[in-house]
Write a structure and sequence with these properties.
The complex is a heterodimer. By secondary structure, chain A is α/β, with parallel strands linked by helices. Chain A has 17 helices and 10 strands. Chain A has helices at about 1-30, 60-70, 85-95, 110-120, 130-135, 135-140, 145-150, 175-180, 190-200, 215-225, 230-240, 250-260, 275-280, 335-360, 365-375, 390-410, 415-430; strands spanning about 40-50, 75-80, 105, 170-175, 205-210, 285-290, 305-310, 315, 325, 380-385. The radius of gyration of chain A is 30 Å and the shape is globular. Residues about 1-35 of chain A have low confidence and may be disordered. By secondary structure, chain B is of the alpha+beta class. Chain B folds into 2 domains: about 1-295, PAS domain (Beta-Lactamase); about 450-590, Heat Shock Protein 90 (2-Layer Sandwich), CATH 3.30.565. The mean pLDDT of chain B is about 85. The chains are: A alpha/beta, B alpha+beta.
Chain lengths: ~425, ~600
């Protein structure tokens, strides 16, 4: 009897050992599942350009500052591309129709038709609620800038910079070349300007760095600033989508353009702004018109000899809304939320830059920056940027095709204005 | 014919335990091995098909990207953009554009159709599809509210009229510049477009079911193993499982479902799912071979283990069996049957001990035989002496009466003493007597001896114990007194003295007999005293000559038998005599 019990006990022990082994074996095979409660970092895609001349990544400082400030929450992931501004803008259109736009886009306001189509097709976010409900953000924006970025119905599709102080364009000029021609200062009037060009040419110096591609930015800055010299011309520049260019202002603009190209380099035709930039910073040309943003693109060895002046007649060209950035619809709410925060961060950084720049001593600034502050503070006449006022066909097709013809004398200024008016007709057809 | 050898119990137990241990070890190792191999093999197979599914998913991603790029190319085509503008495409370019879609960089386009925002349809020249047909097809619904994303949908061909189920790729065509109504582009894809993904992996997954399912759970294309077909109900179950999964990418990574393991990859933009289903039979297929190998190994292990166990059991139990046979076969007579072992183990010691034991038993038997012989002689003598004690007493009484008539005082006294002595020695059968009786006995003896040897000695008895209630082995003192007279007073004729003292030292009863005669010889004394440390069986060998020392051996033997080895019996030679001392632990009283 005792033996039988012992055997039973032994059997139970054996079963217990086998069971324990089996449990252990299966237990080992089972992997522990872990769930992470941490909120994942939201990526905000964006495309920005790299300056082909300097290799500088535009807005890199802003992106890095934001990513550092919002590490773990939002990250702006930039696809840096080596493209001209014009190529970038055309790509925006392609990305839109192929539904591959990044979450934040720039330069939209430079493409008037496209901008309005984007609004009409509800492809970009109305930021008015965000801005109006955010007192801190709103307070950072100069009223004129906010107004420029607002549509008639009050909607805001372009998140503005804080100030218009950085959006003005004038003329960058080479002090050394000017001095070589015996010119000590930048011309104050348009008569003096043309004389200056003549003098430079007489000294074997090409006065202007121009181009015809894109929207013919450089020559158009000179021509529209010159046009705004008269009251009629200034009024014309304020018109949105002018009805016709076959008028005094249109003719004057064409004539000025033709005249400007008399003082430029041979490679100005059929090339884009990057060629003009190279011509200026290689010392081939004495003047190039552009905005404040080019300060960062001035090579270090050139900072001592590059100066900045308003266009003759104390004129600066500025449309703050061209610096507004938009948030693309179609992204998730969390991405859009991050994008809006990024744009607010941009406004804030812009305000800080302005305060820093305007409070800097002369020693801390390069001569061109000192000139810019002086020009901005001397109550210049602000001429609207033609890019936000005129139709896209004119800017993107007609100017590029007609300007070489005009400068070559193949078409007259009147015919040039006819081509301009044809663009108006085509543009209206598409509306 | 030889008689079968009785199996050794130890060997059986050893074999039984060894086999039990072996079975336990094999069982545990087989369970562990089985679980491990099964997990590993399953994991390997599952990983293989999971990886295959992921590759197919990535191939599907690539296909989608290709289709996206191809449709994007169409959208950006200048003539296509012109079709969206107000002026539209010039008539001359209409046919060219219709044909240009045939050259789209995307393999597998079976048919195409582009509809601009002016209800113009661009398709193959033989298709002649009207705008109304496009609208009636309902394909616009598939594009939904999307702005211009490439859409894949699986449906019956209502656009090109074949009615067959096919994959269609559709996309809104938007104007680059203006907010015009969009056009629509549709590609009907050849079945090989999707099948190619499966065909590429078919070689790697012959035994599985592989397929592609659209976002609504319709199977677009599928292949399965002839060996392990998937039934209709099983297919419905699998589709349900796939539909329940959320997310994109690898939505099922070798998930165990009913009947097998399911892996699936959901393409992010289309919602199409590539899946592979590995039936349990495939998972277990390789295991059968492993089981066979296991079984083979275990069989060899069991055979080797049993053979070795039997060999070692034989080797270890053989000497035990030899001992066992020697012991069980011992008949009590054959003392020559000793054990000869040379195992270099403790068993050799056991064998030697057994042999010694045999020698001891043999000697003890001889002693017992001698003792029995002596006992029989003693009993005979006793019987002779007890023939008629009454006759002896009556005779002594008659002699006493005659001596009294004749006034023979000495004779009277001697007869009286002899009578007392005999009464105590013969009439009381008990071994234990009171000290009082023992002293009376020895006094009678001494009185007889005093009569026999006039003036030879005087005696003195000093009893310091309660003589009536203290017990002692009888006839102890008389032989000592006899020796004192015989050997102590052998050289004197008068003046000898005998002192008997009985006392207690704690619990020890001391009996002392002193004589003032010639001191005992040193050699004899040492020999007697050495007897205290000797084994009982060897006492007789101390004084083989029975004429001398027999009394001492008798006393010592009786005392040791009665009171054990703690009894002390010593002689001391003094300057003018000899002292004999007996020490009895426990006071002399013992149970009868």
């Amino acid at each position: 009897m005792r033996k039988h019990r012992k055997e039973k006990r032994n059997r139970r022990r054996l079963l217990a050992v086998v069971s324990a082994f089996a449990v252990l074996s299966t237990g080992c095979a089972r992997e522990t599942e872990e769930t992470s409660a941490e909120k994942q970092e939201v990526t905000i895609p964006m495309i920005l350009t790299v300056d082909s001349s300097t290799g500088i990544k535009n807005e890199e400082k802003l992106v890095e500052a934001f990513n550092e400030a919002y590490e773990g929450v939002w990250q702006v992931e930039v696809d840096w591309i080596m493209e001209t501004e014009e190529e970038y803008r055309q790509n925006l259109k392609r990305q839109n129709v192929t539904d591959t736009l990044p979450a934040v886009i720039t330069d939209l306001r430079m493409l008037p038709s496209f901008y309005h189509m984007m609004i009409q097709d509800e492809r970009i976010e109305d930021l008015s609620a965000w801005i109006n409900e955010d007192e801190e953000w709103k307070a950072m924006i100069e009223p004129a800038v906010l107004e420029a970025c607002s549509e008639e119905d009050g909607s805001i599709y372009l998140a503005p910079l804080s100030t218009a102080a950085f959006s003005c364009s004038g003329v960058f000029w080479n002090e050394e070349l000017f001095a070589a021609a015996g010119i000590s200062s930048f011309p104050q009037t348009w008569e003096e300007f043309w004389e200056c060009c003549e003098t430079l040419e007489e000294h074997g110096i090409t006065p202007l760095a121009l181009h015809t591609e894109g929207t013919a930015w450089a020559p158009m800055l000179f021509a529209t600033a010159e046009l705004a010299q008269s009251e009629e011309g200034a009024a014309f520049m304020k018109e949105l989508y002018p009805d016709s260019y076959q008028n005094v202002c249109g003719i004057q603009l064409a004539e000025t353009l033709k005249r400007l190209f008399e003082y430029t380099t041979e490679d100005a035709l059929y090339t884009d702004f990057d060629v003009s930039y190279e011509n200026f910073f290689s010392g081939k040309a004495a003047m190039i018109p552009n905005g404040y943003w080019m300060m960062d693109q001035i090579p270090e060895e050139w900072t001592g000899k590059v100066r900045f002046s308003p266009f003759p007649g104390n004129k600066l060209i500025s449309s703050p809304e061209t610096f507004g950035w938009a948030v693309v619809s179609g992204y998730s709410e969390e991405v859009k939320e991050g994008a809006v925060e990024f744009l607010k961060f941009r406004t804030k950084l812009n305000l800080e830059e302005k305060e820093e720049l305007f409070s800097s001593s002369a020693e801390e600034l390069i001569p061109a920056e000192q000139d810019y502050i002086k020009a901005y503070q001397e109550n210049p006449q602000i001429v609207p940027n033609y890019q936000v006022k005129w139709n896209s066909i004119l800017q993107e097709e007609v100017l590029g095709e007609a300007l070489p013809l005009l400068t070559a004398g193949e078409i007259s200024p009147e015919e040039f204005t006819e081509l301009e008016d044809e663009s108006i007709q085509r543009f209206e057809e598409e509306q | 014919m030889t008689k079968g050898r009785k199996p050794s119990g130890i060997r059986k137990k050893y074999l039984r335990d060894t086999i039990a241990l072996l079975i336990l070890a094999l069982m545990l190792s087989s369970i562990g091995g089985w679980i491990y191999v099964r997990e590993k093999m399953s994991a390997t197979i599952i990983d293989q098909y999971e990886f295959m599914t992921e590759r197919e998913g990535l191939a599907l991603d690539a296909l989608y990207r290709n289709s996206d790029e191809a449709t994007a190319e169409c959208i950006l085509y200048e003539d296509v953009q012109k079709t969206l503008q107000t002026r539209g495409l010039e008539e001359i370019s209409y046919n060219a554009l219709s044909k240009s879609f045939a050259y789209v960089d995307l393999e597998g386009i079976a048919d195409y159709c582009y509809v601009d925002n002016k209800k113009n349809v661009y398709s193959r020249s033989y298709s002649s599809i009207s705008y109304e047909q496009v609208e009636e097809s309902g394909f616009r619904e598939y594009l939904g509210d999307e702005y211009s994303r490439t859409i894949w949908f699986w449906t019956s061909d209502r656009l090109f009229g074949t009615g067959e189920e096919a994959l269609f790729i559709g996309r809104y065509v938007r104007s680059l510049e203006y907010a015009h109504e969009p056009g629509m582009l549709f590609f009907k894809m050849d079945p090989r477009f999707l099948e190619e993904i499966i065909d590429t992996e078919r070689e790697n997954g012959k035994e599985t079911a592989i397929g592609i399912m659209d976002a609504d759970g319709q199977i677009c294309t599928a292949e399965q193993s002839e060996e392990f077909p998937v039934g209709a109900s099983e297919e419905a179950y699998l589709i349900e499982q796939l539909k329940q999964q959320q997310g994109t990418g690898m939505i099922l990574e070798g998930e165990h479902v009913k009947g097998g393991v399911l892996s699936a990859y959901r393409q992010a933009e289309t919602g199409f799912v590539v899946f592979s289903f590995v039936p349990d039979e495939v998972l277990n297929q390789g295991l059968a071979e492993i089981i066979l190998v296991f079984a083979g190994i275990y069989l060899v292990v069991i055979i080797v283990a049993v053979v070795l166990s039997m060999y070692f059991a034989e080797r270890f139990t053989k000497p035990i069996q030899t001992i066992n046979e020697a012991m069980t076969g011992f008949d009590g007579n054959d003392f020559e049957r000793t054990i000869e072992l040379h195992t270099n183990t403790e068993l050799d010691e056991i064998g030697l001990s057994y042999n010694k034991m045999l020698v001891n038993i043999q000697r003890l038997l001889e002693e017992i035989k001698d003792q029995e012989k002596e006992l029989r002689t003693s009993e005979l003598n006793m019987l002779i002496s007890q023939i008629n004690p009454h006759f002896l007493y009556n005779t002594l009484d008659t002699i006493y009466m005659l001596a009294r008539i004749n006034k023979e005082e000495t004779t009277m006294k001697m007869i009286q003493a002899l009578s007392t002595y005999l009464r105590l020695s013969l009439s009381k059968g008990s071994e234990i007597v009171t000290v009082e009786d023992e002293l009376e006995n020895v006094k009678s003896y001494m009185e007889i001896q005093q009569i026999r040897n006039e003036n030879l000695f005087s005696y003195e008895v000093d009893c310091q114990v309660d003589a009536a209630h203290t017990w002692v082995l009888k006839l102890i003192l008389q032989p000592l007194v006899e020796n004192a007279i015989k050997y102590g007073f052998c050289n004197i004729f008068e003046g000898g003295q005998i002192r008997i003292q009985v006392r207690k030292e704690g619990e020890i009863l001391c009996l002392e007999v002193y004589n003032s005669g010639t001191p005992i010889e040193k050699e004899i004394m040492e020999k007697i005293n050495a007897m205290n440390e000797m084994p009982l069986s060897q006492l007789k060998e101390c004084f083989p000559d029975k004429k001398r020392g027999y009394g001492v051996v008798n006393i010592m033997t009786r005392l040791r038998l009665k009171y054990g080895d703690a009894v002390r019996f010593c002689y001391e030679a003094e300057q003018d005599g000899t002292r004999c001392l007996i020490k009895i632990p426990g006071g002399g009283k013992t149970e009868e």
